[in-house]
Amino acid sequence: MNVTPYIEEIRRREIRFDSYDDLDAIVEAAGDADYVLLGEASHGTSEFYTIRAELSRRLIEKKGFSFLAVEGDWPSCYTLNRYVKNDPGAAPDAREAQYSFNRWPAWMWANREITEFAEWLKSHNAAGSLKPAGTQHQVGFYGLDVYSLWESMEAVLQHLKETGSPELETAKKAFSCFDPYGREGQSYGVAAAFLSESCEEEVVKLLHELHAKRSSGAQGSEAALSDEINALVAVNAEKYYRTMVRGGNESWNVRDRHMTETLDRLMKFHGQGAKAIIWEHNTHIGDARATDMADDGMVNVGQLVREQQGRERVFAVGFGTHRGTVIAADDWGGEVQVKQVPKAMKGSWEDLMHQAGPYDKMLFFQGKNDLFMDTFGHRAIGVVYHPQYERGNYVPSLMAFRYDAFIYVDESKALEPLEQEVYV
Among 170, 184, 167, 83, which residue's Cα sits nearest to residue 125? Predict the structure, then answer.
C-alpha cells in the first residue's frame, strides 16, 4: 500500500496537541452528544488516563455531563462514587476508596492518575453542593463490567440486611446457590454449562424483585439502584461464565451487552437530559462493525450505543501511541511489570500518525466519504502483553467508521499503580 496520500492527509487535517487547552477542540466537536466514549489503546498507559481525565473535566464543566461509567466492577467503583459525592460514611480519601479495587488487574483503577482525578471530582461536587438547590448535580463514578459476581452478591446482601428489606431471603437463596463453587467463575461455568447446575433462576428472580421495588418508588435512592445493578451483574455474570467455558465469542457479547444495559439503566436513573462519559478500551468503544470483530459475530459497546441511541447522540474518541512503556503482565494474574512498547509496525495507523510528524496530535474523521475508510492495522494492548509477538496486537480497522476522533500520543509512559494486595 502506498501510504503517502494518507500521511499527507493527516498533515493537512491534524490539530497539534501541545497543551490541555487544545482539547477544547474535542469538546466542541462532541457538540450536543449525550454519550462521549473515550477509549484507550492499553489499560496501562498514563497519558490515556490523564487526557481522559482532563477531557472529562471539561465536558463536566462546559457541557454538564452527569456521570462517568468505566470498564470496572460496580462494587469497587461504587465505593469511589460514594467518596467523590461526599457521602456520609464514605472513605476518608481517594486512595482508601481505591483500595476496594483489589481484584487483578487492580492497577486499572487503583493508580495515581485516578487518585488525582477523583480528588478533583470530589472538590467539584463539594463546590456544587454549596450552590442553590437544582443548579448543580453530583457527578457520579460507576462501573460497567460483569466480573464481580461474588462481590456484587455480597454487596446486595449487606445492604438488604442493613435496611431490613423483604428481598433479603431471595438474595440469600441466590447467593447460597453459588456457594459450592468457591468464588471460581470457571468452576461455576462448567457446572452450569455441562452439569445443568445453573443458578440462573435465582438471580433473575432477585433482579426482578429489586427492579420492581425501585420502579414502584418504594426506594428510589442511589443505594437502591446499586442493589439493582449488583443483581444485574449476578444475572449476566452467571450467563458470562456459563458461555465462557463453551468457548467461542458469545461470552464477549454477553459482557458488552451487560455494559450497555448497565449504561442504559444509569441514564434512566439520572433522568431527562442525562449525559454520560464512558471510559473503556478502544476494543469496547470503537464500533465493532469497523473491525474484523464483525466477521466473528462480535458486538461491542460502541456499536450497540450507536445503534440504540442514534449516531448523532454518540461521539467516540480513540487513542493510540507510537512507542513508550506500559503496565502489563506476562499472563493473567501475573506480576505487574513496566514493559517496553516498541515502535509501531510499518504501515500501521500509529506508524502513519508518527510519519506525519513525531508529536502529539488530534484528528477528526468525516464519515463514510473519508479517506480513512480504508483498512489499517490499529494497535491494541491488553492487561496481558507480549511485545515480542507484536504483530498479533493490531486490529484491522476502518478508522473513520470506528471513531469520530482520534488522539495520538507519540511517546507514552506507564501508568503508576498504587501499592496494594490483590487477588486473582
Answer: 83
In this prediction, residue 424 has a pLDDT band, given cuts at 50, 70 and 90, of: low
CA–CA dist 339, 43 (Å, integer): 12
The angle formed by the CA atoms of residues 125, 126 and 132, to the nearest 5 degrees, is 90
Taking a C-beta distance cutoff of 8 angstroms, is the pair 62, 21 a contact?
Answer: no
Burial label for 411, CB within 10 Å (0-12, 13-18, 19+), is middle
Residue-wise pLDDT tens digits, 2-55: 999 999 999 999 999 999 999 999 999 999 999 999 999 999 999 999 999 999
* Cα 77 from Cα 109, distance rounded (Å): 9
DSSP state of 343: P
Alpha helices for 136-218 (secondary structure H): 149-163, 168-178, 185-194, 200-215
Could you report the per-residue pLDDT of 151-186, keeping only the tens digit for each?
Answer: 999 999 999 999 999 999 999 999 999 999 988 888
Longest CA–CA span in the chain (Å) reads: 68
Domain assignments of the chain as residue spans, ordered by start: 144-274
**How far is Cα 381 from Cα 19, in angstroms, rounded to an integer?**
25
Q: How would you class 202 by CB atoms within 10 Å of its CB: exposed for 0-12, middle for 13-18, buried for 19 or more?
A: buried
Whether the pTM exceeds 0.85: the reply is yes
> Cell 439493582 sits at which residue?
228
